[in-house]
Structure formats: C-alpha cells, structure tokens
C-alpha cells in the first residue's frame, strides 16, 4: 500500500518538510506530477537543499526516489539539481526516472514566456504548460526517447524517428511564432539549426541521465509485491489543479490525490492514506482569485515572518488569512485522512486571527467554493492570537499556548479532518506529532 502527501491550498504549504520528516518511515518516495515549477527548501542540521524535481526522500539515505510518468522533466534542470548531491553517480541506484515521463524542450520555455505576454497567468515560465500541451496533443518526446538517443545513437532507427518528431515539432513552433511563415529556405535553415541545437542538448543530457531512466511503474509494482512502503509526493496544491482549481489560473497537471495513480502507475485502491498539507494561513503566487488575500500590513507580516518568497522564481508570494472553505473543499477532493498544519509559528506575530468561514457571493452568503471564485468576498470569524507567547520551536502539543490550541481545534472543526502533525519551524526537529 502507498501513502500520499498532497497540498491542499495554492502550493508552497511545506510538503517538502513533511516528506523529509516522514521519509525515514518509507522505502520509496515518488513524484507523480508537475515539473521544476515546484520547489522545496529542506533544512537538515542547518544545511539547505533546494529541490525541484528530485523527490524529497533523497535526503534520507535508505530511500529510493522515483520521478514518475506524470512528471515533466527539463533534463538540464535535473542534472543541475543532481549536482548538489555530488553529481549523478552519487544517486545511481537511489533515483529512477520513468521512461514514460515527458521531456521539456527549450521551445516549451519560450512558448510559456510568450503565452504569458499574451495572457498572463503568472506561470513560472518553465515550459510546464506547453510540455503538457504537447503530451495531450501526442507530439511530445519522452524520457525513453532520451534513453534511445543514448543507447542507439541518432543514426539508428530509433534516432531517426526522434529526429523526425523533433523536426515536426520545431516546424510548428516556428510557424506559431510567425503565422506568415512559408516553407522557405530561411525557415528550413532555421529548423536545421534548431534541430541540431536541440539534438545536441538532448544527447548531452542523455549521456548523464540514461542510467536513471527505466520503467518505474514496473519498479513500483515490484516494490509493492515485496511489501515495501511507498510515499507519493504531490507538487503544487489542490487549488491549482487543472480541473478543480481556480481555472485558468492553475498549473497544467492533476495536483489532487486522483492524479497520483495516473502519474505513478499505482492503482487507486493501492493508495491507502492521504495526508493533506496546509499552512496556518494562505499564500499563492501568480495571478488568480485569492479571496483572503491581505495586501496590507497583515499580509506583509506573514510574508516577512513566513519568508514567503518563491523557491523557484524568488517572487513575493501573495499572503492572507486561512480560508476554511477552500481547505474543506480540498480535503473532500483528496479524501484526506489527516492534516499536517504548517508554519504555525508564523502566527506568533499576530494579535488577532481571522478565518474565512463563508463567502459573500452574488448578494448572498455561501459556504462552498464556487467555480468562479473571483466573485467571492471573504466573511471572517475572528479569534484571539497568542502574540507575545510563542509556538516557534515547540515540540510538544501541551506546551503550545492555549490560544494556539483553540485555533487548531477550530480549524479541525471547520475543515472536518484531524490535524495529526504540526510544524513550528523549518527544521526537521521543530515538529509536533499527535
Ligand atoms: P506553471 O505551473 O508554471 O504553469 O504556473 C501556473 C500557476 O501555478 C502559476 O500561478 C504558478 O505560480 C503556480 N505554481 C506552479 N508551481 C508552483 C509551486 O510549486 N508552488 C506554488 N505555485 C506554483
């Protein structure tokens, strides 16, 4: 059986820390969607690791880490990330990449930036959306193509098919940049140049990554048969889900628990326990509805004390109050078994706490998340904070200020799920288990 960790807000809930803390109990940690748009900073004994694609189990020596078929991979970003562990060799046998995962090409990044200029979503501009677009359009390159390029070479049957696919893709890319493009010699030369550039880049990446690329679905089935413990690690958050999030201001993958099966090859019934991760307040990056956003002093305090700046882009995160309706919605979508409440210590600095318990929507009060969340205004319940006392670094539930315990109890009532883990600081040790 597998357990699952999923973000239930707009991402950046602190999933990386939870996976890292829990990884010791698992044999395998699996990423199943997203790409290097995700970012975790994990702090162990004061040492910081920045992870984007590699599962957070990498910090735990006995853990095997899998990048599943649902992930989109920018090969050079992965290679760069491997460097902080002493290079690729250091992780051979501990990291496996699905041969079915799709590859992000440089043109995907360029398309992402150009689409942003036309219609701003606030993406990370990493090429995630355009790569998933190609996957669905059935014109993408996969990690197995990368492996074939390395194993068989560009002059082999497999190599020629890859070149053909890549040329076609580059041709339509150039046409999309300039709709007046004719099949002229100039265009032909440009495609030849881009083709060589892309092939060379893929070949150099393939040399390093080929030993990691394998059928990870089969690997996971085998692990299951051997009774190994598997942890599935979600990226982004439920409110950024392509179907259930604040469309179109969402990421391009299924971020909720349902995506874990498709993105790993494990059957839905093999996922046993779902731990939802939420912060004690809310943040989001990029554009789109965020009813509880506070663009004043409270938001500033949360950003400052919570160090709310993107790990991937360095962008300031938008900050605001805890949204109990969004959290309850996400818990239902994911079937959360329990919750991990992160960054409780950041609220040490607020005299008063506000929880969104309803929305004013088209002239009435509602208590659910509408598909057009942009028309919802928050209705708050207020609670006394614990300013002057502190949650920071507390490791025992009973040692928390009474006001903090009352806040936790109220969140559990509103969200309808038990809070099983509370984080009171960035370090592994600053964690309460209930
Ligand atoms: P994309 O995933 O780069 O296409 O961006 C789409 C939306 O998802 C934007 O609002 C991004 O800011 C957001 N997003 C993507 N990855 C993350 C993440 O790891 N944390 C929070 N937001 C994210």
Strand content bin:
15-25%
Would you count the extended β strands for me?
20
Query: What order do the strands of the largest sheet run in, or round the barrel if closed?
Result: 9-7-5-2-10-1-11-15-19-20
Percent of residues in helices: 25-40%
Quaternary state of the chains: single chain
- The secondary-structure class comes to alpha/beta
Named once each, the bound ligands are: inosinic acid
What is the second-level CATH architecture of the largest domain? Alpha-Beta Complex
Terminal CA distance reads 23 Å
The whole-angstrom Rg is 22 Å
Task: Give start-end ranges of low-pLDDT stretches.
Answer: none
Describe this structure in words.
This protein has 434 residues and is an alpha/beta fold. The chain has two domains: 2-74 and 217-433, Adenylosuccinate Synthetase, Chain A, domain 3, CATH 3.90.170; 102-212, Adenylosuccinate Synthetase, subunit A, domain 2 (Orthogonal Bundle). The protein contains twelve helices and 20 strands. A ten-stranded mixed sheet has the order 9-7-5-2-10-1-11-15-19-20, with helices on both faces. β16 and β17 (364-366) form a beta hairpin. α3 (106-118) crosses α4 and α5 crosses α6 (157-177). The radius of gyration is 22 Å and the shape is globular. The two termini are 23 Å apart. 48% of the residues are buried. The model has no long low-confidence stretch (mean pLDDT 95). The structure holds inosinic acid.
How are the elements arranged and paired?
Layout: E1 2-7, H1 15-23, E2 28-31, E3 40-44, E4 47-51, E5 64-67, E6 72-73, H2 75-83, E7 95-98, E8 102-103, H3 106-118, H4 128-137, H5 143-152, H6 157-177, H7 185-209, E9 213-214, H8 216-225, E10 230-233, H9 258-262, E11 271-279, E12 282-284, H10 297-305, E13 318-320, E14 322-323, H11 324-334, E15 338-342, E16 352-361, E17 364-366, E18 376-384, H12 402-415, E19 419-423, E20 431-433
Parallel strand pairs: 1-10, 1-11, 2-5, 2-10, 5-7, 6-8, 7-9, 11-15, 14-16, 15-19
Antiparallel strand pairs: 3-4, 12-13, 16-17, 16-18, 19-20
Helix pairs in contact: 3-4, 5-6, 5-7, 6-7
């Amino acid at each position: 059986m597998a357990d699952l960790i999923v973000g239930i807000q707009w991402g950046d809930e602190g999933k990386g820390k939870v996976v890292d803390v829990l990884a010791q109990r698992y044999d395998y940690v699996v990423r199943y969607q997203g790409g290097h748009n995700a970012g975790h900073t994990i702090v162990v004994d004061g040492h910081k690791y920045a992870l984007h694609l590699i599962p957070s189990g990498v910090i735990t020596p006995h853990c095997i880490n899998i990048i599943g078929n649902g992930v989109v991979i920018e090969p050079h970003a992965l290679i760069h990330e491997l460097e902080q562990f002493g290079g690729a060799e250091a992780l051979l046998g501990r990291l496996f990449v699905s041969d079915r995962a799709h590859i992000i090409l440089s043109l995907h990044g360029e398309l992402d930036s150009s689409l942003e200029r036309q219609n701003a979503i606030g993406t990370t501009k990493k090429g995630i959306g355009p790569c998933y677009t190609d996957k669905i359009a059935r014109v993408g390159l996969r990690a197995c193509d990368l492996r074939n390029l390395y194993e068989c070479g560009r002059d082999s049957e497999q190599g020629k098919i890859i070149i053909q696919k890549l040329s076609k893709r580059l041709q339509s890319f150039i046409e999309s940049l300039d709709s007046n493009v004719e099949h002229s010699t100039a265009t032909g030369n440009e495609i030849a140049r881009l083709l060589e550039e892309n092939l060379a880049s893929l070949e150099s990446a393939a040399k390093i990554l080929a030993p990691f690329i394998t059928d990870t679905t089969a690997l996971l089935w085998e692990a299951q048969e051997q009774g190994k413990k598997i942890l599935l690690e979600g990226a982004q958050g439920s409110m950024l889900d392509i179907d259930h999030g604040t469309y179109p201001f969402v990421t391009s993958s299924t971020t909720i628990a349902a995506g874990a099966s498709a993105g790993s090859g494990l059957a839905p019934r093999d996922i046993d326990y779902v731990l939802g991760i939420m912060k004690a307040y809310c943040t989001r990056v990029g554009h789109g509805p965020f009813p509880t956003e506070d663009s004043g002093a409270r938001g500033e305090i949360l950003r400052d004390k919570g160090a709310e700046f993107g790990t991937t882009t360095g962008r300031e995160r938008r900050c605001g109050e805890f949204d109990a309706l969004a959290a309850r919605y996400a818990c239902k979508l994911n079937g959360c078994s329990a919750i991990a409440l992160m960054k409780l210590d950041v609220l040490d600095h607020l005299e008063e706490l506000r929880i969104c318990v309803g929305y004013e929507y088209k002239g009435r009060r509602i208590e659910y998340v509408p598909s057009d969340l942009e028309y919802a205004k928050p209705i708050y319940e207020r609670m006394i904070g614990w300013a002057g006392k502190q949650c920071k670094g507390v490791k025992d539930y009973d040692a928390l200020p009474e006001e903090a315990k009352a806040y936790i109890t109220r969140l559990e009532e509103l969200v309808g799920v038990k809070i099983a883990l509370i984080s009171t600081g960035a370090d592994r040790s600053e964690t309460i288990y209930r």
